[in-house]
Input
Amino acid sequence: MQQEPLPGKLHGRHVRMGTEAVRELYDQSYFGKRVREGLDLSLVEAAYLLDRSRIQVSGTRGSPLDFRALFEQASAAEKGFEFRYVVYKDLRERGYYVQPGVPDFRVYPRGGHPGKTPAEFYVSVVSERTPLPLADLAEPVRVAGQMRKRLMLAVVDEESDITYYEAREKAPSGSMPKEEPAGLATLLEDRVVLWDPQGSERLHRDGFYGQPVGGRLQLSLVESAYLLEKGLIKLVDRQGAELDVEEFGRRASTIENDFDMKYRVYRDLRNRRLVVKTGFKFGTHFRVYKRVDAPQKVPHSEYLVHTVSADHVFHLPVISRAVRLAHSVRKAMLFAYQGDGVRYMEVRRLKP
Output
């Protein structure tokens, strides 16, 4: 026998329910927040329950509100309400207990619930059309990590389909041995040639640097800057003038606009004992290996790394393409940015 809908009244951005709703809605399914007068439902919870005829809602003047009226008022009161409703409904129908929280929802693990287990996810809801500044994503990721939670990014597309991602801080590390000095190199048009055959072979074999061409090693700009800074090569220009790190960096920046930003990340990854190669074929700055024991037997790289500025603004279709490509080639997609040192954020598809 179907129960009569429980009465509630709209109060600004919540619906106040009586004490009988505590037992029926909170104790059984963990809807709302208990208060002295009974139970307060967020607008998204109230819309969900109203649509299922679990509650009835009266407006500020006492007249009843149907689902359309409540939804329209909620959408006017809360920016992004329609997106949050789609995600809340989907997660509830997947069997999760969901409560409003920071940034949008807290989701509890299967078999858990409020009061029994901590939340597993913080959920951030965003429309695919909404530009997403790095800071607006990095801060929730940082907070989630500090609280030992996982951040779920729920992206709602124009057809109200949802794609879920997990964003988390990453500290990649490798196990490559330290490099040895390799000799004299020359800066040519937009790359560097290392002339010593033995040094070229050693750098390529032990550190997977550069590309051998006729027994000599052609190095990229970031590789050359790193080896020069470490004192492992001596570098001159085509006139024979020696280049120090500062002068080489100045010249490299005229060749490659984002050289400084890329080099900071390259240097950090190499200092983490990782192997770093160009990610051009994947549309990223770098592909990264934990270890390469021999150039003749190169394993799959573990990461794709793309460098972004501190004021970068993500566009969700770009993230979607990058993450899908990385997944298709069995790699993790990392975005590198300057924070307290170089920081890395992994974004991957999530199937709740």
Summary: The chain has a mean pLDDT of 95.
